[in-house]
From TrEMBL:
Record-annotated ABC transmembrane type-1 domain positions: 67-256
UniProt subcellular location: Cell membrane
Gene Ontology CC entries for this record: plasma membrane
PROSITE patterns xref list: ABC_TM1
Stretches that traverse the bilayer: 12-40, 60-83, 103-123, 135-156, 177-200, 235-255
Originating organism: Aphanothece hegewaldii CCALA 016
Protein name, per record: Sugar ABC transporter permease
PANTHER family assigned to the protein according to its UniProt record, in alphabetical order: ABC TRANSPORTER PERMEASE PROTEIN MG189-RELATED, ABC TRANSPORTER PERMEASE PROTEIN MG189-RELATED-RELATED
Alphabetical keyword list: Cell membrane, Membrane, Transmembrane, Transmembrane helix, Transport
Keyword Ribosomal protein: no
Gene Ontology biological process terms in this record: transmembrane transport
Family in the record: Belongs to the binding-protein-dependent transport system permease family.
Amino acid sequence: MITMLNKSITLSILGLISILVLFPLGVVFITSIVPIGMTIKEAITQNYYTWENYQEAWKQGNFILAFANSTGVAIAVTFFQIVTSTTAGYALSRLSFSGRNSILLLVLATLVIPFQLLVIPIFLVLKWGNLINTYWAMILPTAANGYSIFLMRQFFLTIPIELEEAALLDGANRLQILWNILLPLSRPALVTLFLISFIAEWNDLFKPLVFTTRPELRTVQLAVAAFQEEFTNSWSVLMAVVVIVTLPIIILFLFGQKQFIRGIGTTGLKN
């Protein structure tokens, strides 16, 4: 009886939290299908909605190039983060060398440093390398990430070391062990890393705003900011833009949510 009561209370709390989280999203979607010049109350009362706001938003926003730029940058950054995080995470979890704990502390220390504090030195480095106003200016600053390295290190620690010892006895080197044994077993962590990195880059406004000025390099978030300046009085069209920009991330998360939950749940079990 007590167990059922606790379960009911837990479900009620989770349901309330879900409503609080989803309510603003519901308002955004409803607003996006309300005809221009009509309030939400009037649209609901008259049961009159339209999809013309999405057509207008897509037509006026010219989002094709912005979507392509954001997708390309997000995939590139995610690829580099997977490479750097898996190699660094493996070294910090399996290799014994002098200063390993100090390096781990330095990696963790980067998590408390806001990116905005580093923007001036990063800008100077990019300028020195003639990378301002290029795709590399949006890729290289976040090609490595302290959280991603820590995530992969924690996941590697959950994999039995006996598998590696057996592979070493069979003559495999460290790179072969990482590629043929650890990475196939790390699918949940890799999917989690991919989703976190891709979503962060897709939603990033700061790097494109600071490091680029060319219109052909405009990303989705810059396109939304520019669109907002032109359609500040048309909330229905603005909300349609928000839905359009958010939809790819929602679809991507739905495809990888099981692996994401498993990856988050299995990291941090060892120290």
